[in-house]
Design brief:
mainly alpha, 6 helices, 69% helix
Length: 124
């Protein structure tokens, strides 16, 4: 998998979340979800498009291409599992989500795999 910046991972993750929630992804919704300006989204989507992570459909909706989808799925899985783990440890949901966002990008594959295995072994 290509090494991309944390901000690009955040954009791709937000796009996947919007796709799951609404069935479509618009730049204005990405801006709202990430709390950024529309010009910031325009700049980011231009870069993501040029790098082959996203495209636009005929209705100007954002479409995750295979490389972008793989990154988004990886980051979203990390986010969800880390959030669940932190909540299980007694952290408030809001803090757990915020901390998961910070951890999800920097955690090694080895450590995340160990966390995933631990979670699977201890699920009821």
């Amino acid at each position: 998998m290509m090494n991309i910046h944390e901000s690009a991972e955040d954009y791709l993750e937000a796009m996947l979340m919007l796709k799951e929630e609404r069935g479509y992804v618009r730049a204005v919704d990405v801006a709202e979800k990430l709390g950024v300006t529309l010009p910031s989204v325009s700049y980011a989507t231009k870069r993501l498009r040029e790098d082959g992570y996203i495209a636009y459909d005929p209705a100007r909706m954002i479409v995750l291409l295979e490389p972008g989808l793989k990154i988004a799925e990886k980051i979203l899985e990390r986010h969800r599992l880390l959030t669940e783990l932190l909540i299980g440890l007694g952290v408030s949901p809001a803090t757990a989500r915020a901390d998961a966002c910070k951890i999800e990008h920097d955690l090694s594959e080895e450590s995340f795999d160990a966390i995933r295995r631990h979670a699977q072994e201890h699920r009821a």
